[in-house]
Design brief:
The chain is mostly helical. The protein has helices at residues 11-59, 68-78, 86-104, 108-117, 122-150, 152-157. The chain is built from six helices and no strands.
């Protein structure tokens, strides 16, 4: 005997499907809650570790009070020294200008000899050599730029 006109599932089947769906939703909610609890627990553990580290660090710090005399001495030591005589500072500035002018006409070997003799400092020698290198590089760049603009066919071939 065949039933005709019956389509779909019975109400019992629909009820079972709804119940299964509710169970799935409940499991998903429980899993999400468990994951959230793990994240919260991990965050709390990290916060406690951080607090412990901060507390142990702060307990190891000593404090020191500096007397007014000590502060005055500290400020005095940090201040730039005042020149004893203004003519001394003028002389030293003219000497460095003279040495710069003299260094431009010397070879690297002569500059090295002056450093060895103590006539000039290593810093002055390094500054002169750096100035020469920068000047040479600028000249090379200028030559390269002018050669590229004069011969545009060369650029096309490259």
């Amino acid at each position: 005997m065949e039933l005709s006109g019956v389509s779909g599932s019975s109400s019992y089947d629909q009820l079972q499907q709804l119940q299964l769906q509710k169970e799935k939703d409940k499991k998903a909610a429980e899993q999400a809650a468990a994951e959230s609890a793990q994240i919260t627990a991990a965050g709390t553990a990290t916060d406690k570790t951080f607090e412990t580290a901060v507390q142990s660090t702060s307990q190891n710090i000593d404090t020191l009070e500096i007397s007014p005399e000590g502060r005055a001495y500290q400020q005095k030591m940090q201040a730039p020294p005042a020149p004893a005589d203004s003519s001394v500072s003028e002389t030293s500035s003219t000497d460095s200008t003279k040495s710069t002018k003299v260094l431009t006409s010397l070879t690297e070997e002569e500059i090295s000899t002056l450093v060895d003799e103590g006539t000039i400092t290593q810093a002055e020698a390094n500054a002169e050599l750096a100035r020469r290198a920068a000047l040479k590089e600028a000249e090379n760049n200028q030559k390269n730029n002018s050669s590229h603009t004069e011969n545009p066919e060369i650029d096309d071939e490259e």
